[in-house]
Design a protein that fits this description.
Shape: globular
Strand content: over 45%
C-alpha cells in the first residue's frame, strides 16, 4: 500500500522559512517523479513544484519561483520543499504527490 506522509508545516511570520518533508513507502520511490501541490482555503489545488525521478529538472510555479526549492533523497524515500521568504498568500495545506497518489497534507500558515 502506498503511503506519502508530509511533515514540517506550521505557523510562521512573513519572511520566515520552513522545510517540508514527505516520506514515501509502498512503492518504488526512486522511479517516480514527485510533486508538491497546495490548496488554500476556499480554492482549488495549485501545483507548486515537481522534480524528476533522478532529482533533475525541478520546476516551480511562478508564484514560488526563487523562494522555494524542491529536492529529493531517494536513499531515504523522501522529497523536500524548502520554503523561504514566506508570504501570507503561501498559506495552504501542502500535499506531496506521486502519480496517482497524494499524502494527507501538512498545514502551512503564514501570518503576523
Amino acid at each position: 500500500e502506498v503511503h506519502l506522509v508530509e511533515s514540517g508545516g506550521g505557523l510562521v511570520q512573513p519572511g520566515a522559512s520552513l522545510r517540508l518533508s514527505c516520506a514515501g513507502s509502498g512503492f518504488t520511490f526512486g522511479v517516480y517523479d514527485m510533486a508538491w501541490v497546495r490548496q488554500a482555503p476556499g480554492e482549488g489545488p495549485e501545483w507548486v513544484s515537481s522534480i524528476n525521478s533522478d532529482g533533475g529538472s525541478p520546476n516551480y510555479a511562478d508564484s514560488v519561483k526563487g523562494r522555494f526549492t524542491i529536492s529529493r533523497d531517494s536513499a531515504k524515500n523522501t522529497v523536500y520543499l524548502q520554503m523561504n521568504s514566506l508570504k501570507p498568500e503561501d498559506t495552504a495545506v501542502y500535499y506531496c504527490a506521486a502519480p496517482g497518489y497524494w499524502g494527507q497534507g501538512t498545514q502551512v500558515t503564514v501570518s503576523s
